[in-house]
Amino acid sequence: MAAFVPALPVSAADKPLDKAAVEQIVRDYLLTHPELLLEAMEALEKKQQVEGEKATAEALKTNRQALENAPSSPVGGNPKGDITLVEFFDYNCGYCKRTHPERSAAVKGDGKVRVVYKEFPILAPSSREAAKAALAANKQGKYEAFHTALMTHEGRLDSDAIRAAARRVGLDLKRLEQDMGDPAIDAEIKANMELAQKLGIRGTPGFVVGDTVIPGAIETEQFIALFNATRAAKKVGG
């Protein structure tokens, strides 16, 4: 007959901890060492930044043609420039209006920058009306003049202000209104919206030069530094 061996008592150290006990241990440890939370947050932010930069770089590579050479996007500055500045903007954006003279001065002073305009009307219904009017003005060869007229308008735009700006730059208003109904104009705006989303541009203004995305307003000196850095990078890359 086999002998009966009674079960030995399990020590507290050998007992599996339940969820509540584990959570309490972790909580107590973090309260004792709060610096670990800061380290964890910094590590997370760094990881997210690296992942974001990789995603942006891939998006730029994949969408370079649509970004810089879409036939429907107006081109200004020096069309034969050696670098391209892409600008996303809204005519009702105060930061865009304040940045406009800074960007214009940098582009004019450089003389070798090609500018691609991406209408990005996100702030108001009149923003979309102004964007459509600007793209229609491009059909009359007066895009940049009209763009400047809208950017220098003080306050919010409305239909009357848009028409007044069109008259000031000598646009044919009847033709302008007809061209604003062209489905290709709506398609251009939609494409710009999708492109901005892919690049992580969620507000205005937004700029792209080479492999750099600038989300926000910058000054003339910063534009100049950006142009120089882009040229230097092109030389290194061959």
Automatic annotation (TrEMBL):
<dbReference type="Pfam" id="PF01323">
    <property type="entry name" value="DSBA"/>
</dbReference>
<dbReference type="GO" id="GO:0016491">
    <property type="term" value="F:oxidoreductase activity"/>
</dbReference>
<keyword id="KW-0732">Signal</keyword>
<dbReference type="Pfam" id="PF18312">
    <property type="entry name" value="ScsC_N"/>
</dbReference>
<protein>
    <recommendedName>
        <fullName>Thioredoxin domain-containing protein</fullName>
    </recommendedName>
</protein>
<feature type="domain" description="Thioredoxin">
    <location>
        <begin position="49"/>
        <end position="232"/>
    </location>
</feature>
<keyword id="KW-0175">Coiled coil</keyword>
<keyword id="KW-1015">Disulfide bond</keyword>
<dbReference type="InterPro" id="IPR041205">
    <property type="entry name" value="ScsC_N"/>
</dbReference>
<dbReference type="InterPro" id="IPR001853">
    <property type="entry name" value="DSBA-like_thioredoxin_dom"/>
</dbReference>
<keyword id="KW-0676">Redox-active center</keyword>
<dbReference type="InterPro" id="IPR013766">
    <property type="entry name" value="Thioredoxin_domain"/>
</dbReference>
<dbReference type="InterPro" id="IPR036249">
    <property type="entry name" value="Thioredoxin-like_sf"/>
</dbReference>
<keyword id="KW-0560">Oxidoreductase</keyword>
<feature type="coiled-coil region">
    <location>
        <begin position="40"/>
        <end position="70"/>
    </location>
</feature>
